[in-house]
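Regression report. Comparing outputs from two consecutive submissions.

Submission 1:
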Amino acid sequence: MKYNPEKVDEMTLALLYLVTSRTGDTGRAWKGFDRETLARLHRKGLIADPNTRETSLTITAAGMEQAETLFKKHFQRE
């Protein structure tokens, strides 16, 4: 199936926001998402390298800011 990877990245980042434990301007979230999607988010500087043995990953400050915006855009009640 063909899909738009930009939209998948956007929704994944928004969902990561939902399960993030915040620490200052960054956060940690479970990394139970598609590896290729996480790799793209890492290349964009939105998350730390997901290729670790840890079950969670770090969302960067820029990633947290964008994740919050996307979460509100897609999931906030009007």
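Submission 2:
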Amino acid sequence: MRQKEWKLVITFRTTADAIAFEKACKANDKPGRMIPVPREISAGCGLAWASVPEEKDGMAVFLEEQNIKCEEMKVLFC
């Protein structure tokens, strides 16, 4: 079982947006991985991108550059 830690969690309304963001992150060496949405929050598609909290501003800019809309962006202990 993974140890809990602070994470930046980005949720998406659609699976297509989540997969497009994962693909863009991998292609651009952005840190993080796809996870199921933590139970503390809810999201439309059930998928979320988890990264380090320090990346919040950078990920917001990256989302805009990639023209991908996120549902929510939060720092959570999960």
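Expected: both submissions complete independently.
Actual: both completed, but the second showed a warning that disappeared on reload.
Relevant detail on submission 2: Residues 15-27 form the longest helix (13 residues).
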